[in-house]
Amino acid sequence: MTISASDVKTLRNQTGAGMMDCKRALEESGGSIEQAVTLLREKGIMAASKKSAREAKEGIIHTYIHPGSRIATMVEINCETDFVARNESFQTLARDIAMQVAATRPIAVDRDQIEEAVLEQEREIYRNQARNEGKPDHIIDRIVQGKIEKFNQENCLLEQPFIRDTDKTVRELVTEAVATLGENIMVRRFVRYELGGE
Question: What is the model's pLDDT at position 54?
Answer without folding.
Answer: 61
